[in-house]
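ARCHIVE CARD
Drawer: 12
Card no.: 0347
Subject: one protein chain, sequence and derived structure
Cross-reference: see card 0346
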Amino acid sequence: MVAESAAPKGARRVTGGAAGRAAAKEHTMSADAKDDKKKRRFLSPEKKYQIFLEAQRTDVPAAEILRREGLYSTDLARIRQKVKQGALERLADRPGVKRKTVALEQYEALKRDLEEKERALAELAVEVAILRKKTNGGSWER
């Protein structure tokens, strides 16, 4: 006959006793310490382009560049995609007069200014109409 263990069915037993628990705790502590050290890096556009150019060369493996810069292959793929998009946008530009763009804040300020001036113009148009009626059709002489 097989003796049943005291643990409930499906429960796991920690192997190694206290040593196993200490190792698990140490593992989580080292993961926390690693998170504290590694912070998100923000690369400048110039640095991204430099990495792109280096990765395009055939004499240096891309994996070596990625290790040196602390990047993943998905980061390089994203950089390559952005370089392609930027190149296509620039190549799609037609020569000649370029459209001027303004900042959103400046656009909103100009729009408010235009609305105020339109209101003022409408008020003045009403005043002119009233004055014409008072002077019998616009003649200033009586």
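Annotation on reverse: The mean pLDDT is 79. DSSP finds five helices and no strands in the chain.
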